[in-house]
Amino acid sequence: MCGVFGIWSHPEAAKLAYLGLHALQHRGQEAAGIVAAGREDARFVRHLGRGLVADVFTEDDLAALGGTHAIGHVRYSTAGGTGTENTQPFSVMTSKGALALAHNGNLVNAKEIRDALEREGAIFSTPGDSEVFVHLLARARAPRLVDRVREAAAQVVGAYTLIVMHDSGMIGVRDPQGFRPLVLGELNGGYVLASETSALELIGAKLIREVKPGEIVSVDQHGVHSERLVHAPDAQPRSCIFELVYFARPDSSIFDTSVYEARVKMGQQLATEQPADADIVVPVPDSGVPAALGFAEASGLPFRHGLLRSHYVGRTFIEPEQSIRHFGVKLKLGPIRAVLEGKRVVVVDDSIVRGTTSRKIVAMLRGAGAKEVHMRISSPPSRYPCFYGIDTPTRAELIAATKSVEEIREFITADSLGYLSESGLHLAAGDPDEERFCNACFTGRYTTGRELIEPRLVQIDGR
Ligand code: AMP
User: Domains plus CATH for the chain?
Assistant: First the structure.
């Protein structure tokens, strides 16, 4: 979980990168950074910080970045902990010139590569896996950066959407399976690369197209040029279906699919598979809203806002030790008694991870007078951890890894609980043959075939 953004050839590149990162903020709230280039002094200049985009950059910081090209990154810690030393984009000087790099995804074999490089004397400054790319790029020998990117990519396994900037161009890459999204746009003759179309929309850039799985797109003063990663020409694309379920913004279009429409269809499909005898459909805002609309439409039940989401919850708050129950969830969500009182409620959310939120929501709905609470989830049970960049807890913490649906229902104290089926999810995502998307978090079918040697999995399974 991270967002990447790049803009090539625009007089206000750093400011637009800042805005682009704003529109990708949902992909990572822990830290943000921008590297600017194309300055009069020919330097790459970087500004990074912890926290939200709006807190990391002041107007003066953006003015000091300057330049006509920029790449940016918002970080949601997956591999490598939470220190600032992890913050991207990286900005380094190699024997072949300055490079800046932003990465979204997780590499499955980062540790092996890192160990091998360290044995040869490489010094890493961050614990995460993204820096592996920086080293591989610095060591690659081909004269063209595109070929050095290919050389580096041929050595890694896993999920990587990359933006690499050098003196004379910017490169966008998606791994052969295309786990994470990347789109290409145009703005006043310059080019934009971004994780999601929401970033293009905000800065008024026009979508050209999605970067394809296994594609390297280079942009420079000559325009856009496309090449393939050669090491896996026939790899079956497996984009992350959880991006459509939860992670991406509903106003984005990724994997050539409208996120909003996919979520509505998930809700419609859910209503067909898991109907409920109830009076109203209530979404868990914001993540459950499109699916709840679809559920209401397909079931003929009225859609009602029974839970209000506060948009002013800060990042830190003081929690009273005991006196107020479900305090954390109450800060974020408030029940609307006038809607809920005496009603049989279908409550729709996109996923259950640990189960603690759902349990509190059920209690909150009952506390506000709901007569019955029927929980409906617009994805299958989340049973397996993700190794490709979605931050999921270890198997032991995933409630569906150890409990049956009936046991989960009991834990969250709902009157009934129903999940969308795997085939229903693929159908709603426009993939009826179940061949376009990675669904490993639901099925355990890890598509790179490398996870079994990963130390993290060994630890998770207790082997
Ligand atoms: P939990 O209490 O752990 O079951 O949380 C479930 C809620 O977390 C749901 O409302 C989801 O929308 C949301 N969610 C799902 N996946 C993630 C994730 N990887 N990181 C943060 N929140 C998530």
Answer: 3-237 (3.60.20.10), 259-310+326-443 (3.40.50.2020)
Predicted structure pTM score: 0.93
Give the DSSP letter string of 340-397: HTT-EEEEEES--SSSHHHHHHHHHHHHTT-SEEEEEESS----S--SSS-----GGG
Calculate the CA dihedral of residues 142, 143, 144, 147 and round it to 10 degrees: 0
Output DSSP code: residue 418.
Answer: E
User: Is-contact 208 261, C-beta < 8 A?
Assistant: no
- The residue among 121, 221, 234, 237 whose CA lies nearest residue 174 is 237
- Residue 364: how many CA atoms within 13 Å on its side-chain side? 27
| Bridge partners of residue 215, in order along the sequence | 228
Block means of pLDDT (10 residues each) for the chain, 463 residues, are: 95 97 95 96 95 95 97 79 70 94 92 93 88 94 93 93 96 96 96 98 98 96 91 80 97 97 98 98 96 98 96 62 69 95 98 95 97 98 91 84 97 98 98 95 84 38 30
- Ligand 1 contacts CB of residue 78 (under 6 A): no
In order of 36, 67, 72, 109, 184, the CA distances from 253 in angstroms are 27, 29, 20, 30, 12
Q: How far is the CA of 352 from the centre of ligand 1 (A)?
A: 6
Which residues does residue 74 pair with via DSSP β-bridges, in sequence order?
A: 3, 32
Residue given tokens 């390297």 in the structure block: 216
Our answer to whether residue 240 is catalytic in this structure is no
Residue 284: CB within 6 Å of ligand 1? yes
Tell me the CA distances in angstroms from 55 to 32, 155, 199, 281, one per residue in order: 9, 37, 18, 37
- For residue 303, the cross-strand partners are 281
